[in-house]
TrEMBL record:
Its main location: membrane. Keywords: ATP synthesis, Cell membrane, CF(0), Coiled coil, Hydrogen ion transport, Ion transport, Membrane, Transmembrane, Transmembrane helix, Transport. The keyword Metal-binding does not apply. The chain crosses the membrane at residues 14-36. It holds the Pfam family ATP-synt_B. It is found in: Cell membrane; Endomembrane system. It is a single-pass membrane protein. GO terms for cellular component: endomembrane system; plasma membrane; proton-transporting ATP synthase complex. This is ATP synthase subunit b. It comes from Roseomonas acroporae.
Length: 165
Protein backbone atom coordinates (compact mmCIF):
# COMPACT_ATOMS: atom_id res chain seq x y z
CA UNK A 1 0.00 0.00 0.00
CA UNK A 2 1.40 3.23 -1.05
CA UNK A 3 -0.36 5.21 1.65
CA UNK A 4 1.59 3.53 4.40
CA UNK A 5 4.93 4.08 2.75
CA UNK A 6 6.54 6.68 4.95
CA UNK A 7 8.96 8.57 2.96
CA UNK A 8 11.21 11.47 3.82
CA UNK A 9 8.65 13.89 2.41
CA UNK A 10 5.99 12.59 4.71
CA UNK A 11 8.20 12.80 7.79
CA UNK A 12 9.11 16.40 6.97
CA UNK A 13 5.45 17.29 6.64
CA UNK A 14 4.62 15.73 10.00
CA UNK A 15 7.53 17.61 11.66
CA UNK A 16 6.39 20.93 10.16
CA UNK A 17 2.83 20.12 11.21
CA UNK A 18 3.93 19.63 14.80
CA UNK A 19 6.07 22.80 14.74
CA UNK A 20 3.23 24.93 13.33
CA UNK A 21 0.69 23.51 15.76
CA UNK A 22 3.14 24.02 18.63
CA UNK A 23 3.79 27.66 17.63
CA UNK A 24 0.10 28.22 17.11
CA UNK A 25 -0.62 26.75 20.57
CA UNK A 26 2.07 28.90 22.22
CA UNK A 27 0.83 32.07 20.48
CA UNK A 28 -2.82 31.32 21.24
CA UNK A 29 -2.22 30.31 24.86
CA UNK A 30 0.12 33.23 25.52
CA UNK A 31 -1.71 36.14 23.91
CA UNK A 32 -5.09 35.36 22.34
CA UNK A 33 -6.59 33.01 24.92
CA UNK A 34 -5.85 35.33 27.92
CA UNK A 35 -7.51 38.21 26.05
CA UNK A 36 -10.55 36.05 25.24
CA UNK A 37 -10.64 34.90 28.89
CA UNK A 38 -10.48 38.51 30.07
CA UNK A 39 -13.33 39.47 27.74
CA UNK A 40 -15.37 36.49 28.94
CA UNK A 41 -14.63 37.33 32.59
CA UNK A 42 -15.51 41.00 31.99
CA UNK A 43 -18.74 39.94 30.34
CA UNK A 44 -19.53 37.55 33.18
CA UNK A 45 -18.86 40.26 35.79
CA UNK A 46 -21.01 42.81 33.86
CA UNK A 47 -23.86 40.30 33.64
CA UNK A 48 -23.57 39.57 37.37
CA UNK A 49 -23.51 43.32 38.15
CA UNK A 50 -26.52 43.88 35.91
CA UNK A 51 -28.38 41.04 37.61
CA UNK A 52 -27.51 42.47 41.04
CA UNK A 53 -28.66 45.93 39.90
CA UNK A 54 -31.87 44.40 38.54
CA UNK A 55 -32.49 42.59 41.83
CA UNK A 56 -31.85 45.82 43.76
CA UNK A 57 -34.16 47.76 41.43
CA UNK A 58 -36.83 45.09 41.83
CA UNK A 59 -36.51 45.22 45.61
CA UNK A 60 -36.71 49.01 45.49
CA UNK A 61 -39.73 48.86 43.19
CA UNK A 62 -41.39 46.31 45.48
CA UNK A 63 -40.74 48.57 48.48
CA UNK A 64 -42.12 51.57 46.59
CA UNK A 65 -45.16 49.55 45.56
CA UNK A 66 -45.77 48.47 49.16
CA UNK A 67 -45.37 52.08 50.34
CA UNK A 68 -47.81 53.18 47.63
CA UNK A 69 -50.26 50.48 48.65
CA UNK A 70 -50.02 51.53 52.31
CA UNK A 71 -50.41 55.22 51.41
CA UNK A 72 -53.42 54.40 49.23
CA UNK A 73 -54.99 52.32 52.02
CA UNK A 74 -54.36 55.11 54.53
CA UNK A 75 -55.80 57.75 52.17
CA UNK A 76 -58.81 55.53 51.54
CA UNK A 77 -59.33 55.07 55.29
CA UNK A 78 -59.02 58.84 55.87
CA UNK A 79 -61.46 59.52 53.04
CA UNK A 80 -63.93 57.00 54.45
CA UNK A 81 -63.59 58.58 57.89
CA UNK A 82 -64.14 62.05 56.42
CA UNK A 83 -67.17 60.81 54.50
CA UNK A 84 -68.57 59.16 57.62
CA UNK A 85 -68.02 62.35 59.63
CA UNK A 86 -69.63 64.48 56.93
CA UNK A 87 -72.56 62.07 56.68
CA UNK A 88 -72.98 62.05 60.44
CA UNK A 89 -72.79 65.85 60.57
CA UNK A 90 -75.30 66.18 57.74
CA UNK A 91 -77.60 63.67 59.47
CA UNK A 92 -77.38 65.58 62.75
CA UNK A 93 -78.05 68.85 60.93
CA UNK A 94 -81.01 67.31 59.12
CA UNK A 95 -82.35 65.91 62.41
CA UNK A 96 -82.01 69.34 64.06
CA UNK A 97 -83.81 71.01 61.15
CA UNK A 98 -86.52 68.34 61.21
CA UNK A 99 -87.03 68.84 64.95
CA UNK A 100 -87.20 72.63 64.54
CA UNK A 101 -89.65 72.26 61.66
CA UNK A 102 -91.73 69.78 63.67
CA UNK A 103 -91.83 72.21 66.61
CA UNK A 104 -92.93 75.04 64.29
CA UNK A 105 -95.56 72.83 62.72
CA UNK A 106 -96.80 71.76 66.16
CA UNK A 107 -97.12 75.42 67.16
CA UNK A 108 -98.94 76.25 63.93
CA UNK A 109 -101.28 73.28 64.36
CA UNK A 110 -102.00 74.28 67.94
CA UNK A 111 -102.69 77.90 66.90
CA UNK A 112 -104.91 76.68 64.05
CA UNK A 113 -106.82 74.40 66.44
CA UNK A 114 -107.33 77.35 68.81
CA UNK A 115 -108.60 79.49 65.93
CA UNK A 116 -110.87 76.70 64.73
CA UNK A 117 -112.20 76.17 68.24
CA UNK A 118 -112.84 79.89 68.67
CA UNK A 119 -114.53 80.04 65.24
CA UNK A 120 -116.63 76.98 66.09
CA UNK A 121 -117.62 78.45 69.45
CA UNK A 122 -118.51 81.72 67.76
CA UNK A 123 -120.47 79.91 65.05
CA UNK A 124 -122.22 77.76 67.63
CA UNK A 125 -123.13 80.87 69.60
CA UNK A 126 -124.49 82.48 66.46
CA UNK A 127 -126.23 79.22 65.51
CA UNK A 128 -127.82 78.98 68.95
CA UNK A 129 -129.01 82.56 68.68
CA UNK A 130 -130.36 82.05 65.14
CA UNK A 131 -131.97 78.76 66.14
CA UNK A 132 -133.55 80.36 69.20
CA UNK A 133 -134.82 83.32 67.18
CA UNK A 134 -136.18 81.05 64.43
CA UNK A 135 -137.84 78.68 66.88
CA UNK A 136 -139.33 81.59 68.81
CA UNK A 137 -140.70 83.07 65.57
CA UNK A 138 -142.23 79.72 64.54
CA UNK A 139 -143.78 79.15 67.95
CA UNK A 140 -145.09 82.75 67.93
CA UNK A 141 -146.69 82.21 64.53
CA UNK A 142 -148.09 78.83 65.32
CA UNK A 143 -149.35 79.47 68.80
CA UNK A 144 -149.37 83.19 68.96
CA UNK A 145 -147.54 83.11 72.27
CA UNK A 146 -143.81 82.29 72.70
CA UNK A 147 -141.83 82.05 75.93
CA UNK A 148 -138.24 83.09 75.20
CA UNK A 149 -136.77 81.09 78.14
CA UNK A 150 -138.63 77.89 77.19
CA UNK A 151 -137.59 78.17 73.53
CA UNK A 152 -133.96 78.85 74.60
CA UNK A 153 -134.00 75.78 76.89
CA UNK A 154 -135.47 73.57 74.12
CA UNK A 155 -132.85 74.75 71.59
CA UNK A 156 -130.09 74.13 74.19
CA UNK A 157 -131.33 70.57 74.82
CA UNK A 158 -131.50 69.82 71.08
CA UNK A 159 -127.98 71.18 70.43
CA UNK A 160 -126.70 69.21 73.42
CA UNK A 161 -128.31 66.05 72.06
CA UNK A 162 -126.57 66.63 68.74
CA UNK A 163 -123.25 67.36 70.49
CA UNK A 164 -122.99 71.00 69.42
CA UNK A 165 -123.73 72.88 72.58
Amino acid sequence: MPQLNLTDLMIAQIVWLLIIFGLLYIILSGTVLPRIGAVLEDRRSRIAADLDAARAAKAEADAAMEAHRLATAQARAEANAAIAAATQSAQADANARAEALQARLDEQIEAAERRISAARDSAMGALREVATDTAEALVQRLTGNADRNAVDAAVGRELAARGRA
